[in-house]
Fold this sequence. Notes:
The complex is a heterodimer. By secondary structure, chain A is mainly alpha-helical. Helix content of chain A is 71%, strand content 0%.
Amino acid sequence: MLQKIYDWIDDRIDITPIWRDIADHEVPEHVNPAHHFSAFVYCFGGLTFFVVVIQILSGMFLTMYYVPDIENAWKSVYYLQTEVAHGQIVRGMHHWGASVVIVMLLLHTLRVFFQGAYKKPRELNWMVGVLIFFVMLGLGFTGYLLPWDNKAYFATQVGLEIAEQVPFIGQELKTLLAGDATIVGAQTLTRFFAIHVFFLPGALFALLAIHFILIRRQGISGPL
Amino acid sequence: MSDEKQQVSRRQFLNYTLTGVGGFMAAGLLISPIRMAIDPVLKESSAGDMANVGLSVDDITAEPQRIDWTIDQVDGWYESEVNRAAWVYRNENDEIVAFSPVCKHLGCVVSWEGSDQHPNEYFCPCHDGRYYKDGTNVPGTPPLAPLDEYEQEVRDGMLFLGEPKPRGEA
């Protein structure tokens, strides 16, 4: 049945070369854990991506219940946690996943660093990777505020004061982030929400696409 | 391939294994989010609380009268008072009947004798929908079903109303 549907589509638009291009490629012996167990270090990049997928999925579902408004944000999170079946699990996935992403990302970075895989001709991909790291930190920072509890509020206040320390443009940068020069409130929450669910994910997808295209173009770096 | 039994090729075996493991992981990942998303459908409705509408049964006559009251509504994390309305009268068998004023055509609000041309009928101004006094829709007008009836109860001589139900279910 599935084969028939596939054949019907393939017959018309010839999709086989498309997915072959994406999915079919050599895995060199030195990155295959079946040959050398120590090659598991090559999994960290893929694992980072896997956890990012979990973050995207769980985040999409969380927005079904969450409201970015100072009156209702905490209440909606509390409702989700206590009244909705599996709400606690889904928020747990997003909460813990956020930390796991950073851990995996660091392990991936360490592997690339200590193997010297960032060297010519792969410097560009290292730079893109660093940008992804910054975007991830931004996602973590903006997401931290959203439950609008005491920890979120004061952590954001500290974060905004750090931004204020930037030379020359600090004050403006803080206002831009918080939506107000002095208040951390309604406008801060909507801004952080927009950045967290639209702007940074958009940037993340673009950067990940570049990251992956570059890997396919340049191939995995050779054995040590 | 041998005659007596169908051999599974190495490629097929790997395909099955990978699809199986992949499917298992995807299912494990998605089961909680999906359960959370469909929660409103599976939640038991908390409705069924009867509200005192502030009308003594002695004041209910054969002439339908509109009554308004408010109920406390819990909508997820948001609690509020919402307005409810009903047309209440006593029918020829001396039973109290409370109709929801929501038209069964497209949900506008009907009024008793809302049009001068149609006395003794409920009238909906949106598309000239009409109902007889017992709530039955007038054939040939837009509504296709009789007005919903409120669940009702009389406690200490006061009228209590619950949820509007289609005729026959109240």
